[in-house]
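Box 3.1 — From sequence to structure: Universal stress protein
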Amino acid sequence: MYDNILIPTDGSEAAESAVEQAVDLAAKYGATVHALYVVDVDATNLSLGTEQVDRIRQGRIDEMPEVKAEAEKATGYVAEAAGERGVPVEEHVSAGSPARAIRKFVEDEDVDLVVMGSHGRSGLSRVVLGSVAEKVLRRTRIPVLVVDAHADEEVDEE
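Predicted structure (token representation):
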């Protein structure tokens, strides 16, 4: 059913919350897990400057130790979890708008399922900040499993 499962990760708690689900599915179906870290060039442009962003876009991440370390930490978390279960894993780094980069990866790498975490924002914060998970959900044609980072917390129902 699934041969290639993508886990987009930025190293956040929300992204890490999806790893267990993705690795479990990969183990069940004999799939390969692909951990993708996307350097958000729009956010990075403000903090690093144009020259650094150009390096990232050209795939010269090795020249940027802080960015490389962040990417390796994020994808390494996925690789470690997959390795513990004997699941094959590949680590990838890309640059661009996260939602767009994820969709491109899905198309280019024949991904069958995307498993990603979400902060579970709602209301104004969601409108202002946007939602990578929502954009991926709406603009891909494959199944997307969104794992709420706060799923274990009690919901206050009124």
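Summary of the box: Residues 4-41+71-148 form a domain with the Rossmann fold fold (CATH 3.40.50.620).
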